[in-house]
Amino acid sequence: MSFFGETLKSHIENNDVNIYKLARKSGIERTAIHKIMSAGRMPDVEYVQKLINAMQASPYERDELWAAYNISKDGELLYNQRLKVKSLIDRMNAAFEIPDFVSAPPLDVLPQSKAAVQVTHGGLAVNNMLDDVLTREVYADNPQVYFFMPYDYEFFFDNLFIKYHWNNEFKIKCLFEFSKSGNIHLKQRNENLDVIGMLLPFIMRSHGNFDAYYFYSSSPLRDRSVLPMPYYLLTSQCAVTMNAEMQTAILYYDSAVTECYKQIFNNAKTKANPLVSNITSMLETVNYYGSKTGVTCNGISGFGSHPCITHFLDKDMINAHLSAELPNRDMLVDMTTAVYQHMHETSNNGISTSYFTIEGLNIFVERGLIETLSDRIFLPFTIDERKNILKRMIIAVETDSPIYRLINTSKMKTPKCFYVDVFSGSHMNIVVGERTGGEVNTVNISEESIVESFHDFLINAMGTDVVYSKEDTLHTLHNSLNKL
Hints:
The protein has 3 domains: 3-74, 434 Repressor (Amino-terminal Domain) (Orthogonal Bundle), CATH 1.10.260.40; 107-274, Endonuclease, Chain A (2-Layer Sandwich), CATH 3.30.870; 279-483, Endonuclease, Chain A. The N and C termini lie far apart (53 Å). The radius of gyration is 26 Å and the shape is globular. The protein is built from 17 helices and 15 strands. By secondary structure, the chain is an alpha+beta fold. Helix 1 runs antiparallel to helix 5 and helix 7 runs parallel beside helix 8. The protein has helices spanning 3-14, 19-26, 30-38, 45-55, 59-74, 76-94, 123-138, 154-166, 186-204, 255-271, 282-291, 315-321, 329-348, 358-367, 383-399, 448-459, 470-483, and strands at 117-121, 144-148, 171-178, 210-216, 231-235, 239-242, 248-252, 273-274, 276-279, 299-304, 351-356, 403-406, 418-423, 427-432, 441-445.
């Protein structure tokens, strides 16, 4: 018996459901239902939907049945991987939700340091020491933090993010360990996603002040884990070393020690891979995308606050809408055309998906703007152009070429002014538009296991509750077209 069969049987028995009525109401033969429950037969998505609807299951029961079905179909590790990616998307949204009233305490309320070397024991005491060190660094002339920390040290990352919010000049460089990307077990891939989860809030708000580097478990850098104090934190004022359990820390207010550890960090960085790269101008963004046009890609998937309209743009349209105020405009027109043409060709040769929110669609319909491109970069589309794009999008939805679906934001929150492009087998880009009307901020991630985890989630999102059905998407697009 499959896990789904066990769960279905349990719900039927607990709710005293009549099998004969269930078969009649769902349109599924009674013998088929018995085989699902007892013989481990796996139904398709349509059968599951019919059974759940016929049972009149509560929202909680529906979620439990769908979870059981997906675990039986894909295995628990892959199911958990997709849950982790979904939680990462929610975490992207949370990166912009720090309350404005959070502010740094006055420097004079902090305890004064009394010794050049301080040893601290116990988890709470170590946490307090790190909080003190990071708070002091907020007031430094050139606030900076270099660190090598375990990814699951939540107190540290949450605390650092608050400090990062207090001072936008805070510069962070960090080093992490990943499991080897090639043919790694799903369990290790999920651990890699946990690392990204801790870093996403920094990545989303970095504006070039956050640099992360990673090495693989097979790297010689892995030998650092056998040291008695393998983890460390450096600021412009001090160094802190910690044991593997984060129960003992040594604080050094000594420039020689700090410089020594900074050299250790820099040496490790030269042997590691950059996890993210930030691109903060339109020219750099297009240059970056252009550099990837020759890279083999197995398909493009994406999601964000607005529909991707790449497939509907040509050189004439780009030339008509790219702002005349942009420097190197003629070069940008040619480069952007080449990039969009490459993306169009790539999506035709592989699986291509685009998920977007109703809010982002409404902005496009009402104002003719794509959220991540302000009107300082891309001029609004005319009403006739919007009509034409929506008509072509409706045809694409009907033929699933490419696949367009609306995001169910009650199940998966998506930030505003935001889009993620995932190029399977290559890289992914997180594009964040400036709410103040400035240029876009693009963050690139090329670590293979992260890219493929996101791509897997997106191409398998159809038929789940995180996106609306083809019928609902078409209905919404037709309503949008009628508004024009």
